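Troubleshooting entry. Yesterday's outputs looked truncated, so today I'm pasting the complete records for two proteins to confirm everything comes through intact. If either block looks cut off, that's the bug. Protein one:
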Amino acid sequence: MARNIEIKAKVDDVAFCLKEALELSGLPGQEIVQEDYFFNCSNGRLKLRVLSEDRGELIFYNRADQKGPKTSEYHISLTGEPDNLKRLLERSYGVKGVVKKTRQLFLAGRTRIHIDHVEDLGDFLEFEVVLAENEDSDIGEAEAGRLMEQFNISDHQLISHAYVDLLIDQQKKDCSGNEPS
C-alpha cells in the first residue's frame, strides 16, 4: 500500500499560502472541484471522490487521528462511472458524510500541497509528502515539519481529523447547541 506523511491545518491567510505554494512549485496551482462521499467502514476510511460525471477515484486510507505529521497508508482505484459506484457503495455500506471542496493543488518535488476551501468549514492547508516504498517515515515527517515552518503553521492550527469528521462534529453541535463530546 502506498504511504505518505500528511498534515492538515486551518488557515486564515489563503493569499500567503498561495504565494508560498507558487514559490515552491514554480507553477500555478491546478483548481479541482471535488465531492467526496465517505462510506461507513469498520477500519480506516473509504471515500469516493467524484471529479466529474465520468471520472472518480475510490480511495481507502488509514491514518491516526492526531495533530501534526502522521503516516497515511492509502490505495486508489480509478472509475469512469462514479455515480454507479456511489449507488453501489451507498446500498452496501451507507454514507457517513459528504465533503464538498475546491482544492488548489501544487506539486513541489514529491510533496502535494493542497489549499482547500471546504464548504461549511472554511480554508485549510494540507501537505502530503509521498514516501518511497521502504523509506523511513521520520524523513517525511522532517520534510513536513520544514514546510510547516515555511508556511508559518503553528501547533494550534493543526487538525487531527478528516474533513468529514469535522463536518459531523459541527452538525452535532448545531443540532444540540453544545460542543460534541
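Protein two, checking that the full record survives here as well:
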Amino acid sequence: MPISKLTFVHATVAAILVGMAALMAIVAVNYWLVDRTRNNSETLTRSRAIRSSLVYLRNLMVDAETGQRGFLLTDDAKYLAPYFDAERLIPETIANLRVALRDDAQETQEIDRLTVLLTAKLAELKRTIDEMRAGNRDQAMAEVKTDRGRRLMDEARTIFDTMLDHAEDHIRASVADQRAGITALQWVTIGGALVILIVVGGSAWTILAYTRQLVAVHREVQQLNLTLEARVQERTADLGRANEEIQRFAYIVTHDLRAPLVNIMGFTSELESCLVAIDEYVKRSDADSDDPVVAAARTASLEDLPEAIGFIRSSTRKMDGLINAILKLSREGRRVLKPEPIRLDALLETAAASVQHQVVEAGGEVVIEARVPQVISDRLALEQIFGNLLDNAVKYRAPDRPLQVHIRAKELRDRRVLIEVADNGRGIARQDHERVFDLFRRSGAQDQPGEGIGLAHVRTMVRNLGGAITLESEPGRGTTMRLDLPRELRRVVDEHKGAA
C-alpha cells in the first residue's frame, strides 16, 4: 500500500517523540546514577585517604619508638632521625585526620582519644631521650622499664585498629554501592537502547517504503541530468587542462628567471671577492693622506660597496624567494598557507628596513605604530604584501616633498586586525581606485618601471589570508591602504580544506 506524504510525516513525528521520550528518560536516570556514583566515589576516596593517614600515623609512632630504642641502646644520635621526623609530622597528620573526620562525631571522639595517647607517648619518648642526652642512662632506662610507654602504645593500637576497621567498612560499602550503580546504569542503558532500536527500526522501515516510491521519480530526473552531467564534465576537463597550461607556463617563466638571478648572485660573490683585495689595498694606503681620490676610494671600499653588495644580496634573496613561491604555485596549483605565530611589529620593521635606504635618500622616514597582539598567519604572504606596499610608496612618492610613510595597526572585533599603510605620495585618481588592483593595470603617469602586477598580487594574497584590502587616495594628497586581516589564520585554512 502506498504511503502518503501525510502518513509519512505523522509516522516520523511519532517516532521522533517516542525516541526523545526514551532518550530523556535515559538521560534523567543516567544523571541520577552518575550523581550517586560521584557521591560514592567521593566517600570511597575520603575513606581511603583516612585509612592511609591512619596507617601513616601508626607507622610514624612505630618509627619514633624505634628511633628511641636504638638511641638508648647505642647512645648514637643517628638513630634519632626517625624520631625527629615523626615528632615533626605527627601533629600535621593528626590535623589532617581531624579535617577528614569532622563530619563523623564518633570518629572525632576516637581521634581525640588517640591524640591524648600519642601526645603522652611522645612526651615519654622525649623524657627518655633527654635523660640519655644528659648522661642519665639509668634514669632513662628506669623510665622505659615502668612499662607506661608500652601501655600507651597498646591503647593507641587498639584505637588504630578500630578506626581502620571503620574505614574498611566504609570502603566496602562504597564499592558495593558503586557496583550496584554501575549494574543499574547498564540495565537502564540496555533498556533504553532497545526502545531506541525499536523506534529506529520502525522509522527505517517507513523511510525505506517511502523512499522506494521516490526512486522511480529520481530515476527520471537522473535520465534528464545525464546530458547535463556530461556537459559539466567536459567543461571541467577543459578548465583542468587550461589550469595545467597556466601552471606549466608559470613554471617555464620562473625557470627562465632563475638563470639571470643565478648570474647576479654569482657576480655578486665575485664582487665580494674582489672587494677583499681592494679593502686590503685601501687599508695599506696612507690613512692620513689628504688626497680626495684616496678618501673617496676608502669610503667606497669600506662603506658604500659593502652596503651596496648587502642590498644586492637582500634583493636577490627576496627575488629568489618570490621565484620559489611561484615555482611551488606552479607545481601544486596553489601554495599551502603555513600559519605560525608572528609579531606584527617586528615583521613591519623588517619590511621597512628593506626600503630604508631609499626612504632616507628621499629625505623621509617610516613611522610604525603596531601595538597589537601576536597574530597567527602566513609569514611569507605578509612579507610580500607589505614589501609591495612599501615599494609602491617609495616608487610613487611626490617629488616636491620628503617622503613620509605611516604604518598603523590596531585590533578590531571578531579577532581581526586593521593595518593602514599611509603615504604622502602623488596619490591615485578616484576612478582608478579599483582599477589598480587589476592585473597589468596601472594608474597615473607611466614614468616608473613596472608591469602592474604588484597590487593584483597583494589583493590575491590578502584574500587567501581571509582578509580584504581597500584604499583611500586623492591625487597630490597621498594614499592609504587598509588591510583587514584575521588574527587567527588556522580557521581560514580549515574552512578552505572543508570547501575542498
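Both blocks look complete. Sanity check on protein two: The chain is about 70% helix and 10% strand.
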